[in-house]
Amino acid sequence: MSMIQVNNLKKSFGDLEVLKDINAEVKEQEVVCVIGPSGSGKSTFLRCLNRLEEITGGHVIINGHDITDKNVKINQVRQEVGMVFQQFNLFPHKTVLENITLSPIKVKSQSKTAAKEKALGLLEKVGLSEKANSYPGELSGGQKQRVAIARALAMDPKIMLFDEPTSALDPEMVGDVLEVMKQLAQEGMTMVVVTHEMGFAREVGDRVIFMDGGFIVEENVPHELFGNPQHERTKAFLSKVL
Amino acid sequence: MDTIIEALPYLLEGLKTTLYVFIIALIIGFIIGLVMALFRLAPLKILNWIATFFIDAIRGTPFIVQLFFIYFGLNSLEWVSMDSITAGIVTVAINAGAYLAEIIRAGIMSIDKGQSEAARSLGLSGGQNMRYIVLPQAFRRMLPAFTNQSIISLKDTSLLSIIGIADLTQRGEVQMAATFEPFKIWFAVGIIYFIVIYILSILANYMERRFELR
Predict the structure, then answer these.
(1) Do A89 and B125 touch (CB under 8 A)?
(2) Nearest Cα residue in chain B from A77
(3) Burial class (CB in 10 A: 0-12, 13-18, 19+), A241
(4) Cβ pair A52:B117 closer than 8 A
(5) Is the separation of the CB atoms in A142 and A170 below 8 Å?
(6) pLDDT (tens digit per residue) in A71-127
(7) Separation of alpha carbons B73 and A131, rounded Å
(8) Is A210 helix (H, G, I), strand (E, B) or coil?
(9) CA–CA separation, A202 vs A193, rounded Å?
(10) What is the phi/psi pair of residue A212, to 5°?
(11) What pLDDT score was predicted for residue B213?
(12) Kind of pairing, strands A207-212 and A57-62?
């Protein structure tokens, strides 16, 4: 079953066309990694999947909801789509626990006790139980990102989007975050991961999409795309990053 | 010294009026400022225009003209009847509201876009995002500017003596007329204003430390 269906997606910022004609599909429990040079449109593509960017043209269908339809209840669809950002974007005025429970309580009307219990479980899962009452400012980058993952998971999303989740981290923090993501993938979460971590894409990804210049240039299973790239641009990019 | 001590109870009675007008006007002014700031940031053009017009109109005219317009001008209309305290409160509130609108708008705009994106990605509505994420952070950042505006508004209330409100300044005038001791009386009035504003600053400093951005 297809969780994400993207048809002829176009996105422009003013006169600048960033996404030219994107067609893609992500199946349930699939982990798709999106790679490409900066400015290729991969982050914009990801941000169109929960309509953080207004979509210029085409259709994006998330778990059966066409989010390009003006009448779609976007806040409801977003509950099913968790997102993790490069800059974490934790709420600095709230504790770790409050960061995680805010949305379940306010959006899903969960009781405080239920939300807290769930949050503590998620913190244990990402290895940060002892940080429940800390503020984001007291955490390292890697810890922040794991809290951000827990925060997104607290909404019980069907899909998780990751926008370069390790790019702002010190090298020694990257492993912890990737480990959590790997575990999530193994549990069957549907994931779209924009990343520069080629090792992660190769090991955890079911499929890798290579984007350049606002197009999907090539997509394939990881060992094919990395081992036997078909397009010149893919080859040129991989020769620089591998 | 005797003159001051004798005048003091009478002056402090005036201070009560000053503080009453100030506090109510500041609360209303804050609400006006918040609404106008949200209007200026709203996607609807008509709301932007309303807020911009209001802010420009208030910033572009002297306080005393606003006071006369509201108290004498509006009151000259058949269907308006305001006592001087009401007119005073309305003028200070509207005046503070215009300046606070810009302070609040700047505070909101200073919050990183990623905060709203994270909130919206979690399914929070635009209103919930403002209420739980953006405004609490914005308010902390605007505390120093807010304190500044509060102090200006408190001092502006002294102009209300002109329309006959028995505030601290007006009672100073009465005492001066009664005692013919302008130096002592105005010195005492000045000191009272100074002490109140000093306490206000200490309070603001305490709040700033208490709500320090983590």
Answers:
(1) no
(2) B123
(3) exposed
(4) yes
(5) yes
(6) 999 999 999 999 999 999 999 999 999 999 999 999 999 999 999 999 999 999 999
(7) 61
(8) strand
(9) 12
(10) -155, 135
(11) 57
(12) unpaired
- The amino acid at A150: A
Type of residue numbered B9:
P
Are the Cβ atoms of A92 and B124 closer than 8 angstroms? no
- A4 DSSP β-pair partners: A26, A62
**Distance of alpha carbon B26 from alpha carbon B17, whole angstroms:** 14
Largest CA distance in chain A: 55
* Phi (first) and psi of residue A40, to 5 degrees: -80, -15
* Predicted TM-score of the model (pTM): 0.88
| A137/B122 Cβ within 8 A | no
Residue B97 contacts residue B66 (beta carbons within 8 Å): no
* Of the partner residues A76, A92, A107, the one whose CB lies closest to the CB of residue B214: A92
Look at A151 and B133 and tell me if their CB atoms are within 8 Å.
no
Chain B, nearest residue to A101 by Cα: B122
> Shortest Cα distance from B202 to chain A (angstroms)?
23
Residue of A nearest to B213 (CA): A93
Query: Which among A110, A132, A112 has a CA at the least distance from the CA of A121?
Result: A132
User: Roughly how many angstroms between the first and final C-alpha of chain B, as a whole number?
Assistant: 49
Q: Is A72 on the interface with B (CB under 8 A)?
A: no
Contact residues on chain A for B214, CB-CB shorter than 8 A: 92-93, 135-138
- Pick from B140, B50, B155: which is nearest to B104 by CA? B140
